[in-house]
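TASK: fixed-backbone design
INPUT:
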């Protein structure tokens, strides 16, 4: 992976603002196309084909062309990713990356760590697609760079920002099935040395009646949408209003300043006998200062706060409130010690807080984490090497050291072979430790060891990659029905294979992703060799798009095999396959009319037991975005 310092200064202002925590890296030719540059895999800018990790990038053009109305829908079916949703748009969605737990993936928004310290989850369903410019998905452990939570990988979201000098704007309106209404608009003002911008969006739907069952202790403990039979047989609506603000300024080539903020407010109706609707607020505020006194030296300071607030009701009567926050700071130095040799080192600080207001089970908790890390990246002709080491000191669980090693080699005819091994850990969430009646204060942190072997080749207009991985997780936290609270599973074993390919033939674009997964309880005693819940053994996604002048046409086929919804493998959720279609027409300069159909054949299916997914749905949108 060659280091090209000149590349840094040829990138657009967007790259400076979002994608430059360190010197740019490339493999082979200079990386003049921003879409090829990724930062999440190494905390430094490198090209996607040079990263010694399984990386996928979803840009704004792909988002606009897709049939997705939410972040979970956009990620569904992609390599290594399983989404579990409780009833459609806006409902609780959990993500399992490479068979790891739903809280084993670290989420970042513009470099700021996000997620609820109480539940351990990131509320994906409340992050509006209208605010997203780009998504980087890195599969495989990244604790040696980012600390806790990155057992399965890291997903970083970059919010929208203008690139062109002058004034630029955009707008979109849409309507569809189940009372779907959407509207968004954005405006940017940019000069030679910086710019400011704002985006606003609103999404609302009347929802569907997703509940299929009820709690019955005689047949199934702990499952179902509600307790009293015959209740809550209604449609569950959802609405979300969001805004993002940003500003960046580079007075010269030495200094770069960046600030950004996003906020989403929403209301969600669902089925339950103790809580059946919520008002939510998610907010992320962050900023960075970059100082590059020389071509081979760079120092960057990043500060951020993510807050998550949920007020929950039964009807109009207040039930409880969950308020959490994450404050973070990071100082990172990058030094090019020689041609093709980059050394990075830094310090991370994190403070998690949670406050639960509940008449029956209130609690408050806080803890801090301090870490130092170092990384070496070297290019040796046909060989590349990456070494990383990190030590986290958690206020509650003490010190944890993690490391990673990755090697890549260019072999004959453009083929590239990579191998890697990494360790990771995850501290229990506050709910798992403290929530009265449903917690276990004796829980131990989860720890993992993961190895991966990859083979890839890229050509003119095509790419193919195969990834095989094996992961062992010690002290996996899972619900223990015999205790009525979470417990540590002695060991879990996860192994899998991913195949991805893309090709452009004339005006046709074809992308395919296939996954095979074997995730099992490897501990002795109860549950031995049982499959881990909610992980399908096979998954696939195929996207086909074609341009006909001003017209565009696309299809997305997504399928998943059956899965178990419980640790005892007694509750089965069947497999499914769906087909989505889209048709767009650029009828004037900057104007596009698009029609989407989701679940074209009206397939009835579930991803979580007792919660049916929507059937066939239509949407029509009008987008204005001058080029």
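OUTPUT:
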């Amino acid at each position: 992976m060659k280091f090209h310092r000149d590349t840094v200064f040829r990138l657009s202002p967007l790259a400076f603002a979002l994608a430059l925590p360190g010197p740019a890296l490339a493999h082979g030719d200079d990386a003049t196309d921003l879409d090829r540059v990724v930062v999440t895999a190494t905390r430094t800018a490198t090209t996607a084909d040079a990263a010694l990790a399984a990386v996928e990038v979803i840009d704004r053009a792909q988002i606009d062309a897709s049939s997705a109305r939410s972040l979970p829908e956009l990620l569904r079916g992609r390599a290594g990713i399983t989404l579990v949703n409780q009833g459609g748009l806006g409902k609780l969605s959990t993500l399992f990356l490479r068979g790891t737990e739903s809280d084993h993936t670290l989420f970042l928004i513009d470099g700021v760590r996000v997620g609820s310290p109480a539940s351990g989850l990131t509320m994906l369903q409340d992050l509006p697609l209208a605010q997203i410019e780009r998504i980087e998905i890195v599969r495989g452990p990244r604790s040696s760079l980012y600390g806790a939570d990155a057992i399965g990988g890291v997903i970083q979201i970059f919010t929208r920002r203008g690139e062109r000098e002058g004034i630029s704007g955009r707008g979109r309106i849409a309507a569809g099935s189940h009372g779907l209404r959407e509207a968004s608009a954005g405006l940017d003002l940019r000069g030679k040395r910086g710019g400011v911008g704002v985006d606003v969006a609103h999404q609302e739907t009347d929802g569907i009646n997703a509940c299929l069952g009820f709690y019955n202790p005689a047949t199934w403990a702990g499952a179902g949408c509600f307790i009293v039979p015959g209740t809550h047989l209604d449609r569950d609506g959802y609405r979300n209003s969001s805004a993002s603000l940003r500003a960046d300024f580079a007075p010269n080539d030495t200094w770069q300043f960046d600030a950004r903020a996003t906020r989403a407010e929403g209301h969600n109706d669902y089925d339950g006998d103790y809580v059946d609707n919520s008002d939510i607020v998610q907010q992320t505020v962050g900023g960075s200062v970059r100082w590059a006194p020389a071509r081979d030296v760079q120092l960057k300071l990043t500060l951020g706060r993510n807050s998550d607030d949920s007020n929950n009701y039964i009807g109009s009567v207040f039930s409880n409130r969950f308020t959490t926050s994450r404050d973070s700071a990071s100082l990172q130095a990058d030094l090019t010690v020689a041609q093709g040799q980059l050394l990075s080192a830094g310090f991370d600080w994190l403070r998690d807080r949670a406050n639960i207001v509940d008449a029956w089970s209130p609690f408050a908790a806080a803890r801090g984490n301090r870490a130092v890390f170092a990384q070496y990246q070297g290019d040796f002709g046909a060989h590349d090497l990456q070494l990383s080491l990190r030590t986290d000191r958690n206020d509650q669980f003490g010190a944890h050291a993690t490391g990673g090693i990755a090697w890549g080699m260019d072999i004959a005819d453009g083929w590239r072979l990579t191998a890697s091994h990494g360790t990771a850990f995850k501290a229990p969430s506050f709910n798992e430790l403290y929530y009265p009646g449903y917690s276990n204060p004796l829980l131990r942190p989860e720890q993992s060891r993961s190895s991966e072997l990859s083979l890839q080749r890229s050509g003119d207009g095509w790419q193919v990659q195969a990834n095989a991985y094996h992961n062992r997780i010690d002290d996996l936290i899972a619900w223990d029905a015999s205790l009525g609270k979470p417990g540590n599973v002695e060991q879990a074993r996860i192994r899998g294979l991913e195949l991805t390919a893309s090709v452009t033939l004339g005006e046709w674009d074809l992308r395919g992703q296939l996954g095979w997964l074997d995730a099992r309880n490897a501990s002795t005693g109860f549950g031995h060799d049982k499959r881990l819940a909610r992980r399908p053994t096979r998954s696939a996604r195929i996207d086909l798009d074609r341009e006909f002048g001003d017209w565009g046409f696309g299809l997305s086929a997504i399928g998943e095999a059956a899965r178990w919804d419980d640790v005892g493998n007694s509750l089965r959720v069947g497999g499914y396959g769906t087909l989505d279609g889209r048709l767009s027409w650029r009828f004037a300069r900057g104007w596009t009319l698009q029609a989407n159909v989701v679940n074209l054949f009206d397939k009835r299916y579930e991803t979580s037991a007792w919660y049916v997914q929507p059937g066939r749905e239509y949407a029509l949108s009008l987008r204005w975005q001058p080029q």
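COMMENT: The longest helix spans residues 5-10.
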